[in-house]
Amino acid sequence: GAVISAVTMLMIVPRSTKQIELMTQNEMTNLVQAYSTDLNDKLMEKRVLSYDGYANILRNVKISGLDTSYAYLVDKEGIMRFHPTESKIGMKKGENVTKDFVTYEFKGEMKYAAYHVLNDKSVLIITADRGDMMSVPNSMWVRGISVAAIGIILSVLVGLLAVVLIIRPLVSLT
Asked: What is the DSSP track for 53-86?
């Protein structure tokens, strides 16, 4: 039973990790495109939004179940116009965008980011920590190893009990 559990775990967890990554990437990409449409509509009404204008739209943007996810906005000059940490507003970012989804390292943490270029050439980014996203498959590993270990211990105990029950009558015959 424990061997079957271990083999099953080795087959399922890596596949589920890939599935979770793909589903998160798709959700991030869909979310950034949806909010980009909303922002483009607002920007057509007004040429520039204030911090509060951006915050009203982006403040609560999160990927379901990922506490580390958030949205931020960088204008075409690379200046941060919205970020959940308000002190970062006005900071200059020097990155050029060429894809709509990227992975990168920030302060030792791998991050995922989906982004979309708006009509005014500013860029909306939704980001999340990879570690937060991988907490589900990581807990699957821990749970699977725990179940396999318990299975092995129970198998050994049942085996020892069977040996004792088989040998006891033989010992009393001699």
From this structure: HHHHHHTT---TT-TT-EEEEE-TTSBEEE-SSG
Closest of 71, 68, 96 to residue 82, by C-alpha: 71
* Model pTM above 0.90: no
In single-letter form, the type of residue at position 107 comes to K
What letter does residue 93 receive in the DSSP assignment? -
DSSP class of 92: B
Q: What is the C-alpha separation between 2 and 9, in angstroms, rounded?
A: 10
pLDDT, tens digit, for every residue of 21-73?
888 888 899 999 899 988 888 888 776 778 888 888 899 999 888 888 999 99
Tokens coding 108: 């030792």
How many angstroms separate the Cα of 139 from the Cα of each of 16, 133, 148? Answer: 12, 11, 14
In Å, how far are 31, 52, 99, 110, 152 from 104, measured between CA atoms?
19, 28, 13, 6, 40
